[in-house]
Structure formats: C-alpha cells, structure tokens
Amino acid sequence: MTNLNTRTSFVPGRLEQMSTRIAFFIAGAGIAAWAPLVPYAKARAGLDEGTLGLLLLCLGVGSILAMPMAGILATRFGCRRVAVGGTLMICLALPLLATVSSIPALIAALFLFGAGLGTVDSTVNLQAVIVERASGKTLMSGFHGLFSLGGIVGAAGVSALLGLGVSPLGATLVVNVVLLIALCKAAPHLLPYGSESSGPAFAVPHGIVLFIGGMCFIVFLAEGAALDWSAVFLAQERGIDTAYAGLGYAAFALTMTVGRLTGDAIVRRLGATRVIVFGGLTAAGGLFLATFAPDWEMALVGYALLGAGCSNIVPVLYTAVGKQTVMPESIAVPAITTLGYAGILAGPAVIGFIAHGSSLSFAFGLMAVLLVAVAIGGKVLKV
Fold it and tell me: So what CATH class is 207-381?
C-alpha cells in the first residue's frame, strides 16, 4: 500500500525524470521488437493473412484491457511496482512469441505481450504527468521522444540480429537483456506511489477528458494509417518498388522522433495551443501532399511533414490531462491512452474499409480532414 506521507513529502526530481525517460524507452523498444518477428511467427504457425490479422487483435485486446487496470493498480501500489511488473510480462512474452507454433499458444503469448505493453505504457504516462508537474517545466515531448527512439532501436536491433543469422529466440533474449538492464537502471527512481484518487476505480471518460481522448484517437489513427498503409499506397498508387515502399513510414518515424526529442523547447517557445494548431495543420498538409502529389519523392516529403506535425500533439494533450479537474488523473491518463491505442488498432481497419468503398486516396484525404479538426480542437481547448 502506498505511504501517503512519502507522497506528500517527496518531490520528484532529475533522477525521476531520467527514470521516466528510460521507462518510455523500454515501452518503445518492447513493442518494436515484435515487428520483425511477425513473419517468422506467421511461417512457423502456417498462418494465412486473415488468421494472422485476427491473432494480432489479441495483442490489442490485451493492451486495452490492461490500461485502465494499470491506473487502478498504480494508485494502490505505486508506479514502480506496476511498471516493473509490466516490463517482466513483456520479457516473458517475447521468447514465447519467438518459439510457439500453435494458435492457442500464440493467442496466449500475444495477449500477455499486449497486457505487458499496455501496463507499462499507461503507468509511465501517469508517472510522466506527475513528474512533469512537479518540475514546473515542459518535459512531456522529450519523454515521448524516448518511446520513439526505443521503437527505432528495437526494430532495427532485432532486424540486424536476424540478418546476422541469430535465431528469433536468440534475438528476443538479447532484447530481454537490454530491457532488464534498462529496468534495473530506472526502477530505483520510478515513483513508489501513483496519483491520489478520491473518485471511482474506473469511469467512462467524459467532459474535457473525452474531448482530449478524441483528439488523441485521431492523431493515433493517422499514425496507424502511416504504419500500415503508407507502403501499400506508395507501391500501388505511385509505382514505387516494393523493396523501397517502407520509406514512407521511415520518413514519418524519423521526423516524429526528431520532433519529439526537440519538442520540449518547441512547446516552451510556441505554447501548447499553437503546437496543437500548427501541428494539426502541418500533419494535414503533409498527408494531403503525400496523397495527391504525383511523384513519390514528394509523397515522402508529405509523410515527413505528417510525422513532424503529429510529433508533439499527443505529449501536449497528456500535459493537459494532468491539469484538468473533471476526472482523477489515475483514471483520465489510462483513459486517453486506451483511446489512443484504439486509434492505432482501428486505423488500418477504418482506412481499409473506406478504401474498399471508394479509394485509398479518398481514405487518406478524409484522414487529413480529421487532422484539421484536431487543429481546430486545439484552438478550442486552449491548453
């Protein structure tokens, strides 16, 4: 049980800020390590695309179910215990994902993996809100930048190991060593408490929290669309060689990471409202360019603008959740994290459904209009 005296007498400082950054890195590296393993799991279990897609939903279900629970547990037992538990779940699941071949075992491993990711993601965002508020500084973009950096390191590292002939199991064990070393560095300064909560253990988001969550949903929807459809669009609509179609997402991820790592200074200079407004308009303009420019080179510029525009919107929205008083942050932070994940999960299906009824260009154009709505929402929110 959390010691309330410790909570009131202890103010998070630089060590807690560093531990938060490391925890975000763990979350990013953990989820990205799975991506290069997907083809191996598909081949090992003899799955077709449809069955694989259904199995991957287990990861999302595990994440979404774990997120609100993580907020409840962090309030009761502290961020440290919950984040450590979530990281250990990731480390347990990764070797299973690299070795199991039966569908029931894959379902269980993916659910465990998703639950671990959701637990860590929700808890570190809750800690980030507390630590940023205690510092009196703008830190959230830098925190999220470490998630993006972890994603690049995780995906590139596992891909490199596999390319060197290391087995999937061997690659996941290397990842686990890295994650556990990072956890040992972060754990002593993860918060031994969570947010104080006088409200219910769980509540449906409402009011300003629902508004912020809706904006997060749209931004993550755009991120999911870039992740899952940019390569298809470039190959199908712009005739780029399939081997290079991934450059669209690479451009998006690069500017997203750079934008977040430099985002704290940008937010301090421009202010949160302008970051959302300009970011939303930049992202919308980038997606329009990527969709309707006739050359694939200009499309890459468009995806880069999309990443730059989206990069600091969500961090600013998390800061806004820490300032609102409609819902306890121990409930509000997991709620908008869950809505964000729902956007990433729904993105591919929504884009595919719209594209099936019209075209991929129309679906991306509609997505750009929603990003304009985010910019307008930033003006209304006035964070």
Answer: mainly alpha
Inter-residue contact 162 to 172 (CB < 8 Å): no
Phi (first) and psi of residue 325, to 5 degrees: -125, 10
A 10 A CB-CB count for 363 gives 22
Which pTM value belongs to this model?
0.80
Mean pLDDT, rounded, for 327-339: 83
> Tell me, what's the pLDDT at 3?
44
Cα torsion through 140, 144, 149, 155, rounded to 10: 170
Cα–Cα distance for residue pair 34/55, rounded to 1 Å:
14
Report how far residue 313's alpha carbon sits from residue 155's, in angstroms, rounded to the nearest whole number: 24
Tell me if 307 sits within 8 A of 144, measured CB to CB: no
For the CA atoms of 131, 133, 134, 136, what is the dihedral angle to 10 degrees? 120
pLDDT at 359 over 50: yes
Let me know: does 70 contact 123? Beta carbons within 8 Å: yes
Q: Which CATH code is given to the segment(s) 4-189?
A: 1.20.1250.20
Please provide the average confidence, as pLDDT, over all residues in the chain. 86
Contact residues for 36 (Cβ-Cβ < 8 A; gap 6+): 155, 158, 159, 162, 171
